User: Fold this.
Amino acid sequence: MKQAIIIRYCEIHLKGKNRGYFEKMLKENIKRSLKGIDFKFTAMHNRYLIEDFNEDDYEIIVDKLKKIAGIHTISIALVVESNFESIFEAVKNLIQDKTGTFKVITNRADKTFSPNSMEFSMMLGGKILEHFNKNLKVDVKNPDFAINVDIREEGKTFVYTDVIHCLSGMPVGSAGKGLLLISGGIDSPVAGYMTAKRGMKLDCLHFHSFPYTGEAAKEKVIELTKKVGEYNGGINLFVVSFTHIQEAIHKHCPEEFMITIMRRFMMRIAERLAKQQGDQAIITGESLGQVASQTIESITSSNSVVTMPVLRPLIAFDKIDIIEISKKIDTYETSILPYEDCCTVFLPKYPAIKPNLDRVIKAESKLDIESLIEEAFRKVEKYVF
Ligand code: ATP
Ligand code: MG
Assistant:
């Protein structure tokens, strides 16, 4: 029996006059994600349809659809001719292993089809009860599962039972572009995923401190970036060496401000790269109070060197909730691999937890900030995934 995948989208409904823009973007994102796979794509009212695909590709298609922001739910339907016998055959196929209570929901787009929806549901329900005898009962108010019969205009009918929840959110690209500061930790990949899910297309920036941090630490970040990229329709990763900057801070500035000043450099470089790439915001995985560098005073200090919006989607999240999302998006196991991060190099014993901005600026004035940044920029590596 032929299969089709019904795709339903969500908040896009609410977008009034912009609806066409969001729909077009979602359609393009779906097609891009399924590139290289043969299928027929149809836009219907409030949903899309994927048909005529090779059965072997079915799992890959569903897997990819589950990672596309803007898709609310999907259903796998059997497609049959619009007549009672064929529809009943499809139902038998779908529910043979099911037990409990059910109801039939018929939707008749083809108004020439007789009988009407209500009568058809009753007829089909009756036949199901007769066929499955003791295992199934009707419950129209609170059934264990619904049997949906969608009678289309072209003489064909979709029959399905399950509704699979997908990502929801907004199509990637519909909310501009941003630059994610990605470390090898748990938080930043989650922050990236959440921002992409709200429609922002991401680039990524990682600072490494070779030779203090090794090749394996970089590989870990590449792995994490690729995972985030699955929700972003592909992704660019920029890797900047932070070694000289860290050495200079270590040499010339008070130890207590090491992290504070490092973070100010990160933000400056991020803003410069973001502007160059057309990114409109910087995204970090910071969460209030999680570590010394994430107090409001520390955030004030790092924020004050940039004018671009800095988005911190995890700011009010508990670690336990962040971990739950990282498991869901399959970044957790990679994030906890024990490689060093550039922030763990030159880690001071007693970092300033509430750095005073005036003192930080004074401490930093010993450095030639501009030429350190220039130098870091000259050796940016770019990866495209
Ligand atoms: P994460 O789990 O994302 O590493 P964290 O809890 O370790 O976060 P910090 O080390 O204070 O927290 O980093 C805060 C944020 O700064 C990170 O979420 C990330 O956005 C950014 N960041 C930290 N280290 C790097 C790095 N080496 N390269 C790029 N961005 C970084
Ligand atoms: Mg970290």
In short: The chain has a mean pLDDT of 94. Residues 183, 185, 341, 343 surround magnesium ion (ligand 2) (CB under 6 Å). The first strand starts at residue 2 and ends at 9. The longest helix spans residues 258-277.
